[in-house]
Amino acid sequence: MNMGFRLSRWLVVAGVVVAGSGIAGSGIAVGQTNPYVRPPAYYPGYPYPGGFYPGAIGGAYMGQADLVRAQGELTIMTEQSRVEREKANQAKLETKRKAFDQMMYEKANTPTLTEDLQYEAGLSTQRLITSPMPAEIASGKTLNAMMPMIASLSLKGAQGPVIPLSQDQLHFLNVTVGKEGPSLGMLSDGGARLNWPLGLQGPKQEKVAAQIPALVSQARTGGVDAKLYREVTSQLTQINEDLRKQFHKEEIDGGEFLECRRFLDSLTQSVQALRSPTSQRVLDGSYAAKGRTVPELVDYMTKSGLSYAPANPGHEAVYQAMHEQFAAYTTSAQAAAGIQVRYNPPRTDPWKVK
After folding, report:
1. What is the maximal distance between C-alpha atoms in the chain?
2. Which of 288, 51, 257, 295 is closest to 165 using CA atoms?
3. Where are the extended beta strands (E) located within 233-309?
4. Which long-range contacts (CB under 8 A, 24 or more apart) does 320-323 make?
5. pLDDT tens readout for residues 70-90
6. Is 196 exposed, middle or buried (0-12, 13-18, 19+ CB in 10 A)?
7. Which residues does 123 contact at the CB level (< 8 Å), separation at least 6?
8. How high is the pLDDT of residue 2?
9. Structure pTM?
10. Model confidence over 334-350: pLDDT tens digits?
11. CB neighbours of 317 closer than 8 A, spacing ≥ 6?
């Protein structure tokens, strides 16, 4: 170890001597830089904003600082991303809540299917009261439409004027069990006094006219002979075909054809209704329009489960008179109860009390 220390001292001294001799020999003054000697190389340091850190130690510290700073910036950006993600989630929830509120608002202010049907039914009934077509009156549609309204007014205690009904007119009103059920119609009085149009009269008509009362009599007692029933329906089909041929040959005009066709259609439907289990009760008078006033008639028809069937040909005037009495009673009862028709979509009852 002492040898190494002595050797290093010797080398230093030798270097100083050589350097001194070189300077002295070159004529360069002491303290002056030798232009012929290249200066030793040095490490400029680690670059940073605004300058350099000189030396290897400063560059290492700067690298570590940059690493720490990068890790801090990454942590900050990560947390900012989480904050932005949370804001996005909150915005989604807010949008979902607003969509739900909008849906509930529309649901609360949109009429249901039942309310729409009630509203349309109310408007349709009001039209049938004020301005029906003749065919709607003759078919019994207007009377059937007003019956539930009159029954509802009676339950609410709303009464119209006392309008006595003619019992003779009630006899000409055809009824059926349920809605649009089979109706005896033209055979309710036995079928012996049918007023056949001129265009249908003939041998076939006379034969079937004689058979119908017997068929009705069988139905009144609770049994219909199948052979007689098929024979009558076959005869009616042949008469209908003969009528069509006469019209095509222009042997009858359009008005007479329509009159005969309407009569045959009503008679055929009445004959077919003889097979119904309720035909016996209609023929014996158990099922019939009964009542002294409009509310009594409606109450009886409702409790019996009856509705009005189409009028027989020639009895349309009776239905017209009955419609006017029903309409007068309904209008007066509505006015007495302060009920008016609403023409905006309702939320509850289309007939709103003021």
Report:
1. 168
2. 295
3. 306-308
4. 320/134, 320/137, 320/138, 321/166, 321/169, 322/143, 322/165, 322/169, 322/173, 323/132, 323/137, 323/142, 323/143
5. 888 999 999 999 999 999 999
6. middle
7. 341, 343, 350
8. 47
9. 0.60
10. 888 776 654 444 444 44
11. none
How far apart are alpha carbons 317 and 319 in whole angstroms? 5
Distance CA 199, CA 193 (A): 17
Q: Are 215 and 231 in contact (CB under 8 A)?
A: no
- Burial of 233 from C-beta contacts in 10 A (0-12 / 13-18 / 19+): middle
The tokens 């809605």 sit on which residue? 179
C-alpha 348/C-alpha 116 separation (Å) is 9
Three-state DSSP string of 154-186: HHCCCCCCCCECCHHHHHCCCEEECCCCCCCHH
- 316-337 helix and 141-155 helix, angle to the nearest 10 degrees: 30
Domain positions in the chain: 112-173+289-354, 181-288
Count, residues in the chain: 354
Q: Return the H-helix or E-strand segment holding 303.
A: helix 294-304
- Looking up tokens 């609410």 gives 156
Residues 6 or more apart whose CB falls under 8 angstroms from that of 131 comprise none
Instruction: Give which of 217, 216, 210, 214 is closest to 196, Cα–Cα.
Output: 210
Question: Is 132 within 8 Å of 323 (Cβ atoms)?
Answer: yes
The residues near 314 (Cβ < 8 Å, ≥ 6 apart) are: 195
Of 295, 294, 240, 273, which Cα lies nearest the Cα of 174? 273
Distance CA 94, CA 297 (A): 61
Q: Are 154 and 294 in contact (CB under 8 A)?
A: no
Q: Which amino acid is at 52?
A: F
